[in-house]
Structures are given as C-alpha cells and as structure tokens.
Amino acid sequence: MAAGEQARPLTGGMLWLVAVLLAMANFIAVLDMTIANVSMPDISGALGISTDQGTWVITSYSVAEAIIVPLTGWLAGRFGSLRVFTTAMMLFGVFSAFCGFSNSLDMLVFGRILQGLSGGMLMPLSQTLLMRIFPKERAPAAMALWAMTTLVAPVAGPILGGFICDNYHWSLIFFINVPIALVAAPVILRFLRRYETEKVKAPIDVVGLVLLIVFVGALQVMLDIGKDHDWFASAEIRALAAIAVIGFLAFLFWELTDANPIVDLRVFRHRGFTASVFTLSLGFGSMFGANVLTPLWLQTYMGYTPTWSGMTTAWSGVFAVMMAPVAGILMARKFDPRRIVFAGLVWIAAVTFLRTTLTSDISYWQIATPLILMGLGLPLFFVPLTALGLGSVDEKETASAAGLQNFLRTMAGAITTSLVTTVWDNKTITAHAELSGLADPNGDTVRTLTAGGMTQDAAIGQLNNMVQSQSVMIATNQLMLLVAVAFAISACAIWLAPRPGRAVDPAQAGGH
C-alpha cells in the first residue's frame, strides 16, 4: 500500500467507531486499577482469605502495569504498535475471564499479574493510535477523548465495583471486560492495518529491565502493605525501601549511560517536559487521592452503601466528560496551554478548599456539589498538560516521553493512594486523642445517658462513637486542605515550563 494511503486518516462514522473502541481500551485498563478496591470484602469472603491477603489482588495488577508501561515503546518498535495493541487487547480479555473464574488467591493474583501486563500496554498505545487516525488539525480532539477516559475510569471503578458487589457476584467486575476486549481487538485490527508501524530490531536492555522490575516492584509492594505493617517500624518495610532506593539509583545510572536504554531518561533535559511531568504527577496524584478518600469516608463513616458512594463520586466524572471537548477546542485554537492548565488547577484547588469545612451531618448534595464543580476543571489541566509535555521534546523522543508520562502518572496514583490512607488514619487518631479529653471532662454526658437507661459501658461506647465520628470529619477536612495545597502548588509549577516550541505531531507518537 502506498505511503500516502497508509498515512491517510479515517473519516466520518468509521473514524468515530474506531476512536470509541480505542478509548474503551484505555478505559477498561485504567478502570481495573480501582474497580477491585471496593470489591475486596466480597472477594476475600468468597475465597476464604483475610483482607490483608486480598491486598495482593490490587497490588499485583498495579505492579505489573507500572512495569510494562515504560516498556511499551520498545515492544511497539520491535513488533509493530498495532500488532502489540491488538494482541494486548485480546489477552486482556482472556486474562480478565481467567480472573473471573478464579477460585483461589494464588489463581486470582496470577491472573491479575497477566491482566496488568496486558492492560499496561493499552494505555499508551491507545493514545498513540487515536492521534494517528485523526487528521492532524483534529489531534486535540483525539487527545481530549483519550484524556476523558483516563479521568473518568478511576471514578467509575468504585461505582461499578460497588454496584456489582451489591447486586451480583464479584466475578462480574472482571467478566465485563471480556466482550469489550474480544470485540474491539479484531475490529481495530481490520480497520487500522495501514497504520501499522515499521519494525525496528533494537536490542533489549536486559539489565535495565531487571532493575526496573526490582525497584518498581519493591516500591509498589512497600506502598501497599506499609500501613498494615506500621511502616518503617517493620523490618520487612525497611528492606523493601532499601531495595527500592538502591534499585532506583542503579536503574538511573544504567539508563543514563547505556547506549540503548529501555527507558530514555534523557528526555528530562527538556525543561518543558520535566515541568509538565511534575505538574501532571502532582495534579493527577492529588485527584487520585481525593477520589480514594471520598468513597472510603462515605462508606466507612457516613453510612453510604458502595453503590450510593459510587453514585456520589460519579458526578466529577460526568462533568469531566462534558468539559473534555471544551479543552480540545481551546487547544485547537492555539491558546497557551500553560494558561489553560493553570486555570484548571486553580479552579480545582479552590473547589477542594470548599471541602475543608464539611460536617458529619452534611447532606447528599452538599457532598456532590463540590464534586460536580471539580469535574469541570479536570480536563482543563489534564488534556493540555499531556500535549505540552509531548510538545516540549524532540520529535524523535515523543515515544519515550509518552511512555514516561504514563508511567509516572500511574506511580503518582499508587503513591498518593498509600499516603492518603495512612495520613487519614494518623490524623483521625490524633484528633480522637485531642477530642477525648474535651468531650466530657466532668462526666455529665455519660451521666445523662445512663440516666436515660443505658448501662455505663453502653454510654461510654456511645460517647466514643460520637468522638470518633467528629475525629474522622476533622481528619477528612485536614486532608482535603493538604490536597488543595497540592493542587495549588501544581498550578504554580506549570509556569516553570516555557511555551512549547511546536505542536504535537500525531505521527510522531508512532513508536509508542
């Protein structure tokens, strides 16, 4: 087929059919990062395991995904981006079914590792193929569509997981991926054959790969089990931390000196890329932290079921979908992306600050309204920020830059999730200790309760529950303040980037 025909973008209904299928591939890969979180009690009960053991169901997917994302560029160059994508899509469906049929922890964890390895390749390659099938002048629309699914999926995960576990069997959280993957892969392969990239037989950096697996694996496991082991009071956590640090330093040295690094860290010499990635990691991590905390707070202390908790947090995803085209239009009109990112992050910081004054008797809409407002700002920072980072590197480095963006975004979400739950617990304990001495210093409340017919122990228990409820609310508000500050810092950080010297050429994402 002629080169001109190979490069010709799709048009009309065919374009949007394939675009939606590519976006769905990214959606289900990101969705599976969070859909199992709210399902763990059901999974643990069904498999006869403890909640601590069930953590490995989440950890195994995250570790595998984080490791494979930066390797996708090499795989796409070696075997062709379309072939790697469609193979990963088919395998994701097969391994999702394997997870659904699992009847033991070992089987489920093994399936989640394989699912993470295949799902991790879908994220960057779906972005690449979306940019390639759209006409160059409509590249912002492609990036907006991809960004929209990336933002909505983490919010949709707890919703779907909660609804399924409340009404159906837990295995359905994995089976829902199967028809999407097995239908989309052959359709995409059929219509995108002419977009396949040339294969380059580049040598694989075995040492770099091993070091990447070691330090990412140690870091992810440490983050996931750290809270349950009292962090650095545990010898196991200290050992994992040492392995992660030594592995990272060795990986850094090797990749910067190797002739064919598996991850090209030299792209960080571009100030625009470094500033963009820092802003993206801090902003996305903050968003992920808020998304983790909200359903946890609602289900644990506000009496919400998993379904209602999900329906509450869904508002930010709904309005993010509505605003994504606006972000694409602003980019298409050549607005300075730094201004768009700054406006989006300042807006989100201000909305998050509103969430620092909540009380334990708050209504549904008082919780939902800030989430609605937050959704309006999410695409304004995420969509142009992705383009700004890729537009700040040399064209031949776009593939490496895209891989690093996805990798660091994934790690930012994992790190923030661990930090948020740990800090929240610690602040709750601190607030409880402070309030306990102030709640009933003279014993009047306990005497009133016992006079009403309660036993002494029941009265003390009732008072403790009241103190705990207020302690959690204080801790939640304090943590939201920290998240708001993090959003504000990320808004300022974007000005460290110079205005991009070029727009992102969709064709240059080809290797990734």
What report would you give on this structure?
There is one protein chain. It contains 19 helices and no strands. With 512 residues, the chain is an all-alpha fold. The protein folds into three domains: 199 residues, Up-down Bundle (Growth Hormone, Chain: A), CATH 1.20.1250.20; 57 residues; 245 residues, Growth Hormone, Chain: A, CATH 1.20.1250. The protein starts with a helix and ends in a 19-residue tail after the last helix.
Name the helix and strand elements from N-terminus to C-terminus, one letter apiece. Answer: HHHHHHHHHHHHHHHHHHH
Averaged pLDDT: 81
Main sheet: strands, sense, barrel: none
Q: What's the CATH architecture of the largest domain?
A: Up-down Bundle
**What low-confidence regions span 5 or more consecutive residues with pLDDT below 50?**
1-6, 504-512
Number of strands: 0
Distance between the termini: 22 Å
Determine the structural class based on helices, strands and strand pairing. Answer: mainly alpha
CATH fold name of the largest domain: Growth Hormone, Chain: A
List keywords for this structure.
512 residues; mainly alpha; Growth Hormone, Chain: A; 3 domains; 19 helices; globular; disordered C terminus
Task: Describe the secondary structure blueprint for this structure.
Blueprint: H1 3-7, H2 12-31, H3 40-47, H4 51-68, H5 72-79, H6 81-100, H7 105-133, H8 139-167, H9 172-175, H10 177-191, H11 206-225, H12 235-257, H13 271-301, H14 306-332, H15 337-354, H16 364-390, H17 398-439, H18 444-451, H19 456-493
Helix pairs in contact: 2-7, 2-8, 2-10, 3-4, 4-7, 4-11, 4-17, 5-6, 6-7, 6-10, 7-8, 8-14, 8-16, 11-12, 13-14, 13-16, 13-17, 13-19, 14-16, 15-16, 15-19, 17-19, 18-19
